[in-house]
Amino acid sequence: MLDLMRSTPRRGAYRPGRRGRVRGGSAAVGVLCLGLLAAACSSTSPSSSQTKPTFSSPSTAPGGTGETIPAGASPGVTDTSITVGQVDELTSPIPGLFKGAEDGTKAYFDYVNSQGGVNGRMLKLDAQDSGFQSGQVASITATQVRNEFALVGGFSLLDGAEKPIIDLSRTPAVEFSLDPSMFTDPLVYSALPNPGNHYPLGFFKWLKQKYPQAVRKVGIIWENATATTKTSESAFENAMKSVGYQIVYDHGVGPFDTNFLTDIVAMKNDGVKLVFNLELPDNYAAKLAQQMQQQNFQPVHIEGAAYSSQFLKLAGSSANGIYIEQAYALYLGQDASSTPAVDLFNKWMHKASSNPNFEIESIYGWTSAELFVQALRNAGNPPTRAGLVSALNKITFLTGDGLVPPSDPAAAIASPCFLLAQVQHGKIVRVPPSPPSGFYCAQGGYWDSPGYTPMVRPGT
């Protein structure tokens, strides 16, 4: 089940609907001693007189173009361009894993550049492959924060390796974070905030009202593959229990578990009336649906990661009736007539790549780029990192023009809004309580983990 990261973070908690186990996350610290950050790897205390490394702008633009760098500008900024970095899993653990993040970010940059860029500067993306190695993530990030303005749109299972570097260099990272250590980092900004310990309850309360008996017999099948999926699943369960759900079956499946008959039989024996699938990629979700149909097991079935044409092809008639709850518009085309941003997104995705990847990571890349550009317009001219951070701290409302529910990136508060769809006659369609366009915003409050404190940003 290396399709791990293809599922949906609940309400912005990553939709790990893809694949891969996180390996060697702690190795990033050792890698930081490579060149650029060597001076920072000492164990001396903050009161030590040792001088920390600086991250000054090089004398010429990255790549040796010789473009003029304005006085006072940050790295990656010239008179005509701004270059930002990004790290994704592109070749491993499987080819093209998170190419969608690169495609989505580039597509939005191409759209902005077609309108003249930002304050006369064209946007450039330096997307690099992690190779699914935390040391590679750290090494690439160290180079990027030295030479480039910010990190934008990255999507990596190993993004925790970025944390020491962005914190030391004070480089803002505008991206959807996956590693729990990044959830509360004050320099990470997301169009779909994922605090991990502050979970919206609106959907659970709505569902309980619609199916009051079913919530007393809940079964959960989730992908137990990374620290991220474990953290997300734990928050999901705690939030659910806080409003009276009773979980009678809970199984975290491994990355190579492809047969769900044992789970289905156990849930039938336990009297399960409501089933949630968390973080299962579309091919595994389809297998589960087929086996449930074969066993005549017909609970209320809610998917968090099955929004794809591939799921419908694989599952066939067994998909009919399944609910799909998510935190983004039906961007594959169903919402094109009601949400102009869907058409815009599709148009520029096809311009950015001859074979664009329309997985959910592309939405994260696109909306991260949009959040970055919105802040960049107010980050000074020439822009500085400090100016960018200041501008990001003022963005308290973002919707991606309808692609994602309204959120507060500055405060890192997950949106209470959701979209509910259902497979009907082989098609994915909106169903109540979702409105004809946009999202249903239930004001159901939040579950907070013990010790939860709101985000405190630098300079606020």
Topology diagram in text:
Blueprint: E1 4-5, E2 17-18, H1 27-31, E3 81-88, H2 99-114, E4 122-129, H3 134-147, E5 151-152, H4 163-169, E6 173-174, E7 188-189, E8 198-200, H5 202-210, E9 218-223, H6 227-242, E10 247-253, H7 261-269, E11 274-278, H8 282-294, E12 300-303, H9 309-315, E13 323-326, H10 340-352, H11 360-376, H12 385-392, E14 417-424, E15 427-430, E16 440-441, E17 446-448
Parallel strand pairs: 3-4, 5-6, 6-7, 9-10, 9-11, 11-12, 12-13
Antiparallel strand pairs: 1-2, 8-17, 13-14, 14-15, 14-16
Describe the structure.
There is one protein chain. By secondary structure, the protein is of the alpha/beta class. The protein folds into 2 domains: 203 residues, 3-Layer(aba) Sandwich (Rossmann fold), CATH 3.40.50.2300; 161 residues, Response regulator (Rossmann fold, 3-Layer(aba) Sandwich), CATH 3.40.50. Helices cover 29% and strands 16% of the residues. The protein has 12 helices and 17 strands. The strands form 5 sheets. Strands 9, 10, 11, 12, 13, 14, 15 and 16 form an 8-stranded mixed β-sheet that branches. It has a 3-stranded parallel β-sheet with strand order 5-6-7. β14 and β15 form a beta hairpin. α2 crosses α10, α2 runs parallel beside α11 and α8 runs parallel beside α9. It is globular, with a radius of gyration of 22 Å. The protein starts with a strand and ends in a 12-residue tail after the last strand. 53% of the residues are buried.
